[in-house]
Amino acid sequence: MIEAALRTGIPYVDVAAEIEANVDTFAHFADRARAAGAVIVPAMAFYGGFGDLLATAAMGDWTAADEAHVAYGLSGWHPTAGTRASGVVSGQRRGGRRVRYANGRLEYRDDKAPTLEWPFPEPMGPRAVIGEFTMADVVTIPSHLSIPDVRTYMTVEAARDLSDPDTPTPAPVDERGRSAQTFLVDVVVRSGGDERRAVASGQDIYAITAPLAVEAVDRILTGRTRTTGVASAGEIFDALDFLRALSPHISLELRP
Questions:
Q1: Beta-bridge partners for 70
Q2: Of the candidates 169, 194, 192, which has an alpha carbon nearest to the alpha carbon of residue 181?
Q3: Going by C-beta distance under 8 Å and a sequence separation of 6 or more, which residues neighbour residue 104?
Q4: DSSP 3-state assignment of 49?
Q5: Cβ(215)–Cβ(246) below 8 Å
Q6: Which of 17, 64, 79, 125 places its Cα 20 to 30 Å from the Cα of 154?
Q7: What is the pLDDT of residues 51-62, one digit of tens each?
């Protein structure tokens, strides 16, 4: 698809959340896309793009940070068939190992991910999470932000749902077709002894991907972009303005 977009000179936006696929997009197409003045935005979805926008907004005027943490507070996770299929492929590509981003690079590990408590803000409050439950944010965030350690976390209940083969697919509960699942994404960036935070909440992790992708396409077609080539959401768009445009779909709070 990216090859076709480059041949025809049209922008490309995808919603791929797979870590390896996004790494390949940056590795294989960055130079060619930049030389052609093309726009390629990978992971423009709940996982990858959303966390990157929140981290970029939280950074504000910082040019670098020591670490970034993206904690996913999901009430539950009823995965789609696509989520399950892509998870199988990702697992095969990394030989069953887990992955994390530390010391400025991806690390593949055979040990078990830690379980710890994350201090989500109210109304969710502290919850048990799987530490280093690594999502596409470890590709998108460090692709343009100088942060050597990027960690992502997932509530234990949601991780359990995902691993259970009997968990059903999402079921619509309102006129917009959204499921009852809710989310709270808590992003913290730290530099020295300082900390900045961005918190977003909403309903249905899959339903929020459509507004994210459509807003991205609209901004590309109307020239509201900051760069060309392969670029993640936080690099190519004004992150805070983009998030505010999603106000019909999410609640947002910055905590400097």
A1: 152, 187
A2: 169
A3: 142, 148
A4: helix
A5: yes
A6: 64
A7: 999 999 999 999
